[in-house]
């Protein structure tokens, strides 16, 4: 892959350059020292992947991500000094289409990938390389409530690039007395899930937390997949995690969760596939539709990355293809109609 590096710190730039070159099959296409420069360079020379810092002069990484994804869409991996200290910026940039985030690794003077943090970055680059091969990038406070122990309806949501903002938009439409159980599978490292749940909690009155082994979906509660393993139903009411299929590089996989919901959930399911790169979720959404459940895919115009919803549309997996602003109300309408 041809990789662009956006960072205003010379030591960090050199570290990333050495690390990229050490991988072998990748090359540094260009280096930009701020977001504004990156936007301009992308218009002339669009790389396969951008390693984007967040805190920079003139234009930060959040705005640069927004501009690039709007004008010259490209795979973007956030690589910054401290993800934990910049969680709000991370989720905002992901809402604009950034794929993932990682701390800048500390590597030796030779730029090798011996440290754990360096291996994490190279693994993320490799995963994005597979995603690009699968589907190119160009293309209030929480309010407490009594939980219903056996909800009839399950809202199963899958998302990837651009997902946090899209999920927030959907959840913000749900009232405090919403009686469906909600489970979210977002392509995201497990270490960032607590921060994601906190951020999403600002956009919905519903309780939201990471899904734990042996959890049961509860009415009016949002559970978020929180492991590199796949979230699945292990029985009609009990969730859990499994490493299988091991060859699925989407982790956690939307397809795997949707498929298990189609197999196990005893009531009605509303499957929702939001913005994201690749094809994960399309096949599982089709399984849900084939079982007679309502399935919804986000439309092209409102998707930060029109990969996963496009794949669903291509195989006829979605009953409804809707703009993001209409998805929440459609779910509520379907729930009320079946009451």
TrEMBL record:
Domain of life assignment: Bacteria
Pfam families linked to this entry: CheB_methylest, Response_reg
PTM annotation: Phosphorylated by CheA. Phosphorylation of the N-terminal regulatory domain activates the methylesterase activity.
PANTHER family (UniProt xref): PROTEIN-GLUTAMATE METHYLESTERASE/PROTEIN-GLUTAMINE GLUTAMINASE, PROTEIN-GLUTAMATE METHYLESTERASE_PROTEIN-GLUTAMINE GLUTAMINASE
GO aspect biological process, one term: chemotaxis
Organism the protein comes from: Mesorhizobium ciceri
Domain Response regulatory: 2-119
Residue ranges of domain CheB-type methylesterase in the record: 149-338
GO CC, one annotated term: cytoplasm
Active site per UniProt: 160, 187, 280
Residue numbers bearing the 4-aspartylphosphate modification: 53
Record remark on domains: Contains a C-terminal catalytic domain, and an N-terminal region which modulates catalytic activity.
Keywords from the named record: Chemotaxis, Cytoplasm, Hydrolase, Phosphoprotein, Plasmid
UniProt function note: Involved in chemotaxis. Part of a chemotaxis signal transduction system that modulates chemotaxis in response to various stimuli. Catalyzes the demethylation of specific methylglutamate residues introduced into the chemoreceptors (methyl-accepting chemotaxis proteins or MCP) by CheR. Also mediates the irreversible deamidation of specific glutamine residues to glutamic acid.
SUPFAM superfamilies with a match to the protein in the record: CheY-like, Methylesterase CheB, C-terminal domain
Catalytic activity: [protein]-L-glutamate 5-O-methyl ester + H2O = L-glutamyl-[protein] + methanol + H(+); L-glutaminyl-[protein] + H2O = L-glutamyl-[protein] + NH4(+)
SMART domains xref list: REC (SM00448)
Protein name: Protein-glutamate methylesterase/protein-glutamine glutaminase
Compartments reported by the entry: Cytoplasm
E.C. numbers: 3.1.1.61, 3.5.1.44
Family of the protein in this entry: Belongs to the CheB family.
Gene Ontology molecular functions: phosphorelay response regulator activity; protein-glutamate methylesterase activity; protein-glutamine glutaminase activity
């Amino acid at each position: 892959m041809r990789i662009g590096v956006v960072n205003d710190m010379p030591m960090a730039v050199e570290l990333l350059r050495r690390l990229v070159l050490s991988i072998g099959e990748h090359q540094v296409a260009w280096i930009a020292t701020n977001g504004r420069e990156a936007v301009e360079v992308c218009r002339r020379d669009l790389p396969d992947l951008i390693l984007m810092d967040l805190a920079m002069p003139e234009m930060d990484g959040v705005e640069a991500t927004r501009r690039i994804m709007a004008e010259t869409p490209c795979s973007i991996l956030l690589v910054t000094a401290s993800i934990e200290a910049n969680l709000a910026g991370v989720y905002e940039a992901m809402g604009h289409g950034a794929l993932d985030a990682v701390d800048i690794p500390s590597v030796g003077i030779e730029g090798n990938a011996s440290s754990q943090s360096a291996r994490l970055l190279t693994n993320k680059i490799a995963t994005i390389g597979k995603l690009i091969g699968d589907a190119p990038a160009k293309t209030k406070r929480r309010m407490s409530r009594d939980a219903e122990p056996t909800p009839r309806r399950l809202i199963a949501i899958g998302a990837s690039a651009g997902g946090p903002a899209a999920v927030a938009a959907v959840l913000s439409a749900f009232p405090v007395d919403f009686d469906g159980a909600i489970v979210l599978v977002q392509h995201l490292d497990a270490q960032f899930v607590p921060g994601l749940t906190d951020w999403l909690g600002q956009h919905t009155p519903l309780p939201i937390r990471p899904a734990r082994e042996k959890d049961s979906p509860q009415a009016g509660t949002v559970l978020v997949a929180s492991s590199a393993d796949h979230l699945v139903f292990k029985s009609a009411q009990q969730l859990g995690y499994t490493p299988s299929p091991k060859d699925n590089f989407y982790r956690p996989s939307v397809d795997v969760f949707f498929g298990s919901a189609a197999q196990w959930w005893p009531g009605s399911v509303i499957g929702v596939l939001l913005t994201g790169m690749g094809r994960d979720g399309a096949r599982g959404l089709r399984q849900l539709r084939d079982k007679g459940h309502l399935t919804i895919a986000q439309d092209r115009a409102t998707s930060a990355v029109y990969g996963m919803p496009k794949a669903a549309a291509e195989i006829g997996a979605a009953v409804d293809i809707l703009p993001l602003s209409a998805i929440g109300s459609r779910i509520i309408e379907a729930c009320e109609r079946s009451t």
